[in-house]
TrEMBL record:
Compartment(s): Cytoplasm
Name assigned to this protein: Hypoxanthine phosphoribosyltransferase
Reaction catalyzed: GMP + diphosphate = guanine + 5-phospho-alpha-D-ribose 1-diphosphate; IMP + diphosphate = hypoxanthine + 5-phospho-alpha-D-ribose 1-diphosphate
CDD domains cross-referenced by the UniProt entry: PRTases_typeI
């Protein structure tokens, strides 16, 4: 599996350091509140589990699953395929995502939670690919800026594989060619 990786971009140690910093900000911001933490499945599983362990305020975890598909026009469409169970009304919502690419998924999901009456909505992401954005969307925080390449590991998959790599890397083109 490691032979399929062109280059390691972010190690467990680098991720740990950034996750400590990101969690510290959240712990200050949400002390005394009861946010609903929403990991975006499946990709954010590893990042979210590591982040949640670092959080010290009272929270509930309620994952969501979304799928993105191209509609009849060139604009992608985002559908919730597994919704949260919680009522977000008057609760802060914190989305946890693996990577922001076009921005469509999180733009849609944040709008949905605002419409449902969330007290506030924010997004923390492991990675951000600012070059490939097609809609106007900014994460509130992310661990690292990522290049425009196909990345795997730490939750990110190719065809369901490589999520278990304890680092983020670039997949060799020969693997999917
Ligand atoms: P978007 O921001 O385009 O709506 O959606 C982002 C989603 O696209 C991510 O949650 C992830 O599932 C997928 N994605 C984007 N870039 C990559 C990448 O480099 N590698 C992998 N494995 N998935 C990616
Ligand atoms: Mg994702
Ligand atoms: Mg995927």
């Amino acid at each position: 599996m490691n032979n399929d990786i062109e280059k390691v971009l972010f190690t467990q140690e680098q991720l740990n350091k950034r996750m400590d910093e990101m969690a510290e900000r959240l712990n200050k911001k949400y002390a005394g509140q009861e946010p609903i933490v929403i990991p975006v499945l499946n990709g954010a599983m590893l990042f979210a589990s590591d982040m949640i362990k670092r959080l010290t305020f009272k929270l509930t975890v309620d994952p969501i699953k979304a799928s993105s598909y191209a509609g009849t026009s060139s604009t992608g469409n985002v559908k919730i395929v597994q919704d949260i169970k919680s009522d977000v009304t008057n609760h802060p919502v914190i989305f946890m995502e693996d990577i922001i690419d076009t921005g469509r998924t999180l733009k849609t999901l944040t709008e949905v939670m605002r419409k449902r009456g969330a007290k506030s909505v924010e997004v923390v992401s492991m990675l951000d690919k600012p070059e490939t954005r097609v809609v106007d969307f900014k994460a509130d925080d992310y661990a690292f800026k990522a290049p425009n390449a196909f990345l795997v590991g730490y939750g990110l998959d190719y065809n369901g594989w490589y999520r278990n790599l304890p680092y983020v890397g670039v997949l060799k083109q020969a693997v999917y060619a």
